[in-house]
Here is the input.
Amino acid sequence: MTIPITLTVAGSDSSGGAGIQADLKTFAAFGVYGASVITALTAQNTRGVAGIHQVPAEFVTAQIDAVFGDLEVKAVKIGMVSQRAVIEAIEAGLARWSPAHIVLDPVMVATSGDRLLVPDAIEALRTKLIPRASLITPNLPEAAALLDEQIASSETQVESQGKRLLAMGCRAVLIKGGHGKGAESTDYLFRQAGVVALAAPRIATKNTHGTGCSLSSAIAAGLAKGDDLETAVRNAKTWISAAIAAADRLSVGHGHGPIHHFHGID
Here is the structure.
């Protein structure tokens, strides 16, 4: 049996709820094979991040070349990349291996509020990785940070920011509405052809650790399986909503607990 292979390039979460660990769980839930390139080690739990140990750029390069040199990677998800040198190493690796699909989740702040991206890396993210991405998946604060603007508070402002992010060179932008207000959480998918609004009921739970990581990984998994972009995004949105709704069935930690990646088989 040939199984689609998806690669995550991201940081490790020692508590298992976000980062590499969440990505691999998501890949498994979608029936794809997951490989990983670790960019950083974090000492964290559901209450916060206690420390970050950066992986040297040359070792990130070694991991990328080891994976692509042997495995037929169908899609790549990029998460936490907090150092300029690491971003440059990833850009060079993508140029060497030219994967068909690249989903970039511009992770800047953890669910706990801890900052994960150092300021001098933001410009490298804008100029080196965003132009290579098939899709970027910022939440409302991340979209604002990428543009050096205030967080959008209306649909008109979201649409304006989405179009300017698209102009940075990526093929599509998904601005996530989880940080918004109201009965529905609406994500906006921007492409040159237009904008699609994807709404789902807002779920009241504190257990949302790893939501962004898992959504971008679910989209990458769909692309690896051959879905077109809008189908992959819609399926991922449906799955993540169910994973959040089922999160309170788990009891993990004392802070922001994880979503339930395997709600479909529980």
